[in-house]
Amino acid sequence: MKKTKYLVLTLILVSLTNAYSQNRYPFSETGKLELPSKYRLLLVQEMIQIDSAMQKLVPLMVKGESEKASETALKIHNSFILKSALSKKELKNLKSLLPNDFIKMDRYFHRSAKKLSEALKINKLSESTNIYGKMLNACIGCHSKYAHNRFPELIKNNRNKNKSN
Ligand code: HEC
């Protein structure tokens, strides 16, 4: 049990290190996301689902249960609660409210989940941890820019990061 915990921690640390070194998004930039509460609640629901799936992935990956992990990653790719719960008209409306960069980050994130699912399917574990790291980077990137009010610690960390550079 202890060993598994140690492995999980190591994997998370390796992923985070990857995430930071392959930083795709500018951390200091802040954007505005003002959504009507209906859309916001759906986004939060989607986030909770993604968060839970991301956490399930680590123990599956470190145990080499790549088939189950691949299915979980595919669930993340398919987790378009926002999309599936809205009518065509509402979707169009939502798109007009979302900043372009947010849409780009969201697409990148979902595409990575698909890549992760494919890599796991053919048991490429090392490539999978790499993609997992990039996905964490996408969480941090989008939250830093569009959820900084919600997660103010991210801004603080970024300031520290910039200082040390
Ligand atoms: C494209 C942007 C984007 C990406 C990518 C993204 N998030 Fe989020 N997330 C948000 C925004 C915006 C909020 C704040 C929603 C609000 O409270 O209005 C949020 C909120 C959350 C929350 C809080 C939900 C709650 O209980 O209210 C969690 C947990 C979360 N995200 C997890 C993740 C994880 C884990 C990842 C990556 C695996 C991720 N997010 C990727 C935009 C994103």
CATH 2nd-level architecture:
Up-down Bundle
> If helices are DSSP runs of H or I spanning 4 or more residues, what is the number of helices?
8
| Radius of gyration over all CA atoms, rounded | 17 Å
Q: What's the rounded overall pLDDT mean?
A: 85
Count of discrete domains = 1
Question: What do these coordinates show?
Answer:
- The chain is an all-alpha fold.
- It has helices at residues 2-21, 37-62, 66-77, 81-84, 88-97, 100-121, 125-146, 152-164.
- α1 crosses α7 (125-146), α2 runs antiparallel to α3 and α3 (66-77) runs antiparallel to α6.
- The termini are far apart.
- It binds heme C.
- Heme C (HEC) is lined by residues 33, 40, 43-44, 47-48, 50-51, 54, 102, 105-106, 109, 135, 138-139, 142-143, 146-147, 150.
Secondary structure blueprint with pairings:
Layout: H1 2-21, H2 37-62, H3 66-77, H4 81-84, H5 88-97, H6 100-121, H7 125-146, H8 152-164
Helix pairs in contact: 1-7, 2-3, 3-6, 6-7
The structure holds heme C (HEC).
Heme C binds next to helix 2, helix 6 and helix 7.
Brief digest:
It contains eight helices and no strands.
Spell out the key features of this protein.
165 residues; mainly alpha; Four Helix Bundle (Hemerythrin (Met), subunit A); binds heme C
